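Handout, page 2. Input:
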Amino acid sequence: MQHLAQRAFSATPQTVRAAREFAMQALDGWGGCRRGDDIRLCVSELAGNAVQHGSLDGHDYLIRLVRRPLCLHVEVHDGTRHSPVRVPPRSLDAEDGRGMRIVEELCDTWGVRTDADSSKAVWTCFRRPEAHISRCSCTP
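Output:
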């Protein structure tokens, strides 16, 4: 059985906390999740990136969670396909750029999809611990 939760947020720094809380409420409503801390941090990083780099003035960003039998799929849609998403090289001296490295380490897989409406979705997948597979294979 598949469950879906989604909500749009204004592209302001104050909404990152609300996006994180929305994701946790959805997970709680579905019976919780053993990887909740990892998911919470990834939602926070991706929402922050949407606010800082991806959403155009006046455009919202969208958080979408899809609970599938073997994994949880998280997407953050923003208003532009022109802001690249990358994992920067490791540097001890860098003052920023660690967010996507954190996401990469915590989720099972991630990627970027551009949509026909000139928006971008950064997605992550978290394998459910009770699913007896070694890697999550839920791609959008």
